[in-house]
Amino acid sequence: MADRSEAAAALKWLDAHEQESIARWIDWLKIPSISTDQAYAPQCRQAAEWAAAQLRAAGVRAELRETGDIDPATKRGSGHPIVMGFAHESDTRADAPHVLFYGHYDVQPVDPVSLWESGPFEPVVREARPGEGGGKRVVARGACDDKGQVMMFLEALRAWKEACGDATSGVRFTILLEGEEESGSANLAKFLKDNQRELQGAKVCLISDTGMLARGHPAITYGVRGLVYTEVVLHGANQDLHSGLWGGRAPNPNNLLARILAQVWDAQGSVTIPGFYDKVRPISPDERAAWSKLAFDASEALGRIGLGSEADVESGERGFTALEREWARPTCDINGITGGYTGTGAKTVIPAKASAKVSFRLVADQEPDAVREAFFAWLRERTPAGCRWELIDHSGGHPATVRTDSGYLQGAMRAIKQACGVDTALIKSGGSIPVAGMLKQMLGLDTIFMGFGLDDDRVHSPNEKFEIECFRWGARSHVLFIDELSRMIAR
Amino acid sequence: MADRSEAAAALKWLDAHEQESIARWIDWLKIPSISTDQAYAPQCRQAAEWAAAQLRAAGVRAELRETGDIDPATKRGSGHPIVMGFAHESDTRADAPHVLFYGHYDVQPVDPVSLWESGPFEPVVREARPGEGGGKRVVARGACDDKGQVMMFLEALRAWKEACGDATSGVRFTILLEGEEESGSANLAKFLKDNQRELQGAKVCLISDTGMLARGHPAITYGVRGLVYTEVVLHGANQDLHSGLWGGRAPNPNNLLARILAQVWDAQGSVTIPGFYDKVRPISPDERAAWSKLAFDASEALGRIGLGSEADVESGERGFTALEREWARPTCDINGITGGYTGTGAKTVIPAKASAKVSFRLVADQEPDAVREAFFAWLRERTPAGCRWELIDHSGGHPATVRTDSGYLQGAMRAIKQACGVDTALIKSGGSIPVAGMLKQMLGLDTIFMGFGLDDDRVHSPNEKFEIECFRWGARSHVLFIDELSRMIAR
């Protein structure tokens, strides 16, 4: 068990070495670990090796594990490697804390690259501009999601190691850093299954990939949405056609795809696919009351993305507040759509096909497989004459809602409160962290989502940023959460 | 006046030199004169110079004229140059024929380039494959539209010149080859106005940019549709958003654009924009009866583009046959649509904007400006909360329907019948040739559309082709039409 002076020393170390922490964070951000594009596979591996080296520098045993199909010649997997770290792995006491830390080192693609003010992989540290809110920030792809948030944890380990000689203050940690979170975690379920023995004893999972309630309002997230991500391609003629000669006498997949997808929502913004809402857990009166008291201003949030408050009402399902829609209601979004001529100027073409990336955010207790199959069946029922569908599953994950009364979660709340000097809110997130659903299903693990992002961090967008104060609060909170865990050993 | 032996000599020359004609045609096709992309401006100029040289080789005075804004330093225009040719230009007799020949040397873009079996600008001469129908063909971008069709005329001039010493057999021709037909003819109206004096005396316009009724069934086209081509961009937030954090509480331009454009058509395939059909000329019982007797098989046409006959019914406006829909009914098509992530794999984004290229084919007596403004007003009425439109006009043109009882048209029909040995049908086309509307409005000229394309020529699509027999029939028909015109001098 650590005494309070040790945690204080670790915090002091963090404070004194912040510039070096930021420099390391920036080093990692320079590696373009875009997982969805195989052209970046070497950079993904490089980012994994970088993270393993950081763990080792904190005295944590670390190694890269291959995923996917292994090439016998190179011994490398077809997937991106997973970084595994082990601290106090010989501690198998049933009454001792054992935390599985999950994060990911891969990042989203950067397009449209023309909208970036600086290179996505040339991190810039700058002050906030007038009207931006917040303070100094790092701008780069992955600044927040998830390298910045994982970095808070890595620096907390380093602080403990440097200040007190033990990165986890005696607590058993198994650390798993994935490289395919942004591309659908295709190899994760198999990896967890194959390595179940090593993970089996964990009592709780800790993930830093979520946001605060608002700037200055840290939070623990007790639920995330699930995801179904599909690509639907409507094929018409076997060739592109001239819209003059064929307009009005051959199917136009662009027209038809728009007409079909438009039917996914009714006039109230609800999804029309039969059975879609059947398993949705209603919002309890207690939750509704608690959420309405949170310091969340939907209009102010819209203002930060250039929208007036009038944008709120029609953007989602009628009859729910913005928070309720994000946290407790499923949605359907066209994430991408393309067909025909999209270059400069005019081309009078009827394309042979049109396609859309259509995703659904799910809430408890919706089942991803059932939603996807219902959507595909719904599309097939609407197949236009002469056309055919190509329906692709880009994977997804279960929603995860976790208990708020566990000792781990209460310890995390105390750690954040002490680290940041303000109360911690209990919130949910509209994002999806499929690993949480997997860990619950495979290992029975609840997850503590302890993240410090802000909803104007532009994750997945050009000019992604993470603010230095968020990073500082996160690193301090992780230092103190390790302290809380360490105190459980003694109890 | 030519006697019949001269025309026969010209036809004989054509026959004897066909391989050289094809070689010249291929030379021209190798020049990638894509007008919509400014990167190809030098190649457009090169294709113009190539055509001027052909005219000169036939003894026709020819020159390039600049269009658009003229750069004082280079003396070059911001638009692509227009080739002008003049034969017997000193003949200003009011009773003599004076024909304005219009064609274009620019071509459509080539994307998706991956679908081309050979390079779009590496012309291939090959036999038909089993199932393709027809005979030997040239495959390349522009093989038909419009280099191949213009080439028939250029070779007819050359045949007259070589066989009889005069490219037009005494007939006054003004020849205009445009370089911006495929990109909206932005500079043509001003050019015609500025050069009205030179064109004023023309009695009729001749254009070879249309199709036959079917393989083996040549035709004169007496009507083409008009065009309105727009680009509509729906802007939402000022940045791309994470679909987890914002799905359901910020507008998704992809969803909204699909939902709005889907309303352009009703369940019967009719366009719902108020007033859209107000000026549409009804199909007369005579036309309907004549068209129903034509050797046109809608199912067979669909079969050639890989579709069953069931694709016909739902592709356009109910209550009309396929020919009626193409020739006499207006349409709306989404020629291109794009928004959000369209790369490989998954990206959970709500894009800041989504856009579509939306065009309308118009029939007499619809007005392009009125249709475009009605569409834009219709969109503005549907502006989603928090969003704004960017509405772009990519130009267009009036529909053109011409008289079928003129001496010129009757002469052209005789020429085709003698050249091809079969009767000539009187048809319309769903395509748009905006210059015809312009010439009618500015100079009062009717146009004879004497084209030899087939509707499986894949104009505007990968693997565009033009068949040697079509080319041969076209060149012979133009030789004999010059003969018919020449005979008018004597009358």
Briefly summarize what is shown:
Chain A has 16 helices and 18 strands. By secondary structure, the first copy, chain A, is an alpha+beta fold.
Structure report:
2 copies of one chain form a homodimer. Chain A is 35% helix and 20% strand. By secondary structure, chain A is of the alpha+beta class. In chain A, the strands form 5 sheets. Chain A has a 6-stranded mixed sheet with strand order 1-2-6-3-7-17, with helices on both faces. Chain A has a 4-stranded antiparallel sheet with strand order 11-13-9-14. The longest helix of chain A is centred in the C-terminal third of the chain and has 23 residues. Chains A and B meet through strand 10, helix 7, helix 8, helix 10 and helix 11 of A and strand 10, helix 7, helix 8, helix 10 and helix 11 of B. Strand 11 of chain A pairs antiparallel with strand 11 of chain B, so a sheet runs across the interface.
What is the element layout, followed by pairings?
Two copies of one chain form a homodimer.
Chain A: H1 4-16, H2 18-29, H3 41-57, E1 61-65, E2 82-87, E3 98-104, E4 124-126, E5 137-139, H4 147-164, E6 172-178, H5 188-194, H6 196-199, E7 204-207, E8 219-224, E9 226-235, E10 241-242, H7 243-246, H8 253-261, H9 285-292, H10 298-304, H11 310-315, H12 322-328, E11 331-340, E12 349-350, E13 353-362, H13 368-381, E14 388-397, E15 400-401, H14 407-420, E16 425-429, H15 434-443, E17 447-449, E18 465-467, H16 468-490
Parallel strand pairs in A: 3-6, 3-7, 7-17, 8-16
Antiparallel strand pairs in A: 1-2, 2-6, 4-5, 5-18, 8-15, 9-13, 9-14, 10-12, 11-13
Helix pairs in contact in A: 1-4, 1-16, 2-4, 4-16, 5-15, 14-16
